[in-house]
Amino acid sequence: MRARQRFTIWFESCRLSRRADWLLAWSLRLSALVSGALVVFITVFVIAEAWPALRSIGVWRFLNDASWYPSAGVEDGTFNLVPMLVGTVLTTAGAIVLAAPLGVLSAIFRQVYAPPGVGRVYRWLIELLAGIPSVVYGFWGLVVVVPIITRFEPPGASLLAGILILTLMILPTTTLASDAALQSVPRRTIEGAAALGLGRWATLQGVALPAASSGIATGVLLATGRALGETMAVLMVCGNVVAVPDSLFDPVRTLTANIALEMAYALDGHRSALFVSGLVLLLLVSALVLAAEVVDRRQAVG
Amino acid sequence: MDEPIAWAALSAGRSRASGRGIVGRSADRLAAVIVWMTAAAVSAVFLWLLSDLVRHGAGQLSWAFLVDPPSNAGRAGGIGPIVQSTAWILMIALGVALPIGLGTAVLLAENTSSETLSGRLVRRSLDVLAGVPSIVFGLFGNAFFCVYLGLGFSILSGGLTLACMVLPILIRSTEEGLRAVPTEYRLGGAALGLGRLTILTRLLLPAATPGLVAGVVLGFGRAIAETAALIFTSGYVDRRPESVFDSGRALSIHIYDLAINIPGGELNAYATALVLVMILIITNSTASWLGGRLHAQHLLS
Fold first, then answer.
1. Is residue B51 less than 8 Å (CB to CB) from chain A?
2. What is the pLDDT of residues B233-243, one digit of tens each?
3. A94 lies in some domain
4. In terms of residue numbers, what domain contains A31?
5. ipTM of the complex
């Protein structure tokens, strides 16, 4: 570390006699500026597009209008986003409730219970699943999972289908994060527990999992962000009816699906209203990412 | 490759624990059953998904499927023009993101400024950028590239939108690759009186190649899997594109369209999904193999 610092100080202060080196220094700064400012630029642009709706419709109407019928224009249309907000919150919450424990158990399996060869194959499988496109999960949900649900409770395309598919999608995230967190528990801690005569489960429950908890929490927060922002999979399996669902078997529409469905023909106030829902998503996810970093840093310090 | 923590000590603990009475022992046994059942269930569901893709999709696959244009709204024919549009979108996305990402990664990894406020801000904003939902990239791309810059629904708009999306992945991986290069390389270069540019291009970048390539491969994987950001930027048109200003349909959008809008499009949707998943399996295995090499390099240095 010290050698690195000494070097970087040299790198900074080294003579910049050559023009090429000057050019290099400035092009590096320029590219860092572009990458650093990009997220700010995106946010500003989305706010600018959302602004007309925020001004002429207002937050109050987004929460209290009678229904969602935005294509009639700002005056005559109605702009109640609550069903979509509820849809997003319910699908995300359901998926996290399922994927968090499954992910932790999967990680425990690989770290503790699986024989080395099996563990390696299991990890390979999970990594593979992390890379499968959301549209493929959505398609499989549509042709396999939805018909199965239909057999028990029509129409099939429902909140439940959305939760199940989202669970599959974020399971790799929670598994890999829990796996890394368990991996970083110091060996001595575990040996100490063994020396005290604790059994496997007691060691896991009383020692290893508490030590890994902030790493697991970081993973769960990031997975929540992923579930909130997911579009294609929920769009394809949730039924997309604008209504607050009464049961798991009712169809729902999420904020993301709403944007994807209506953007193609939205004009003026309607288009701007869709950018408002995009802005809500952007802010929610940014908050989650920053929260995950705080948890992660606390772990690094503690 | 991370090996699991050695729980050998625990096995010894377990045999001793068996003397602790029936409660501890049965809790251990119950936990083992639950953990094994979870793993089995997770594996089973995922193997079900993969085997479905292979079973229904493999029958359609042929060279003709990959090069022929779709006919009858995609129910028959192949995916030739769609493969071409996808390739163009990806080339634009990576071609634009690579120089910017490389420059940022070099600055973050090699300069003291990465420890200062501005360096931390850049890193933080990249973390947020990595979490931005793809549909929001789609909204932004539509408003900025299609409407504001007047590029319309085109391969160029889609490619530029994806460039914004893959930037954080490229930067993170390249930065890791650069950090894995031993400090002696830089000191040796400095002792020879080489300029910054020479040290960078002749010593650091060649040595950091695994990280760089892993970043490109991961970015490629993220971009080719993307759907929501492309619906309103590159569009739906399934004809063979003549220039980057034409609208072009990506593979993922083809799957979506066949599944949702085209009754009877399922078989070709399965086949397209199989092509996409096979590309992703190849790219992700390459990335993790390169990542493993990077890790080994880290240990040696």
1. no
2. 998 888 888 88
3. yes
4. 2-56
5. 0.89
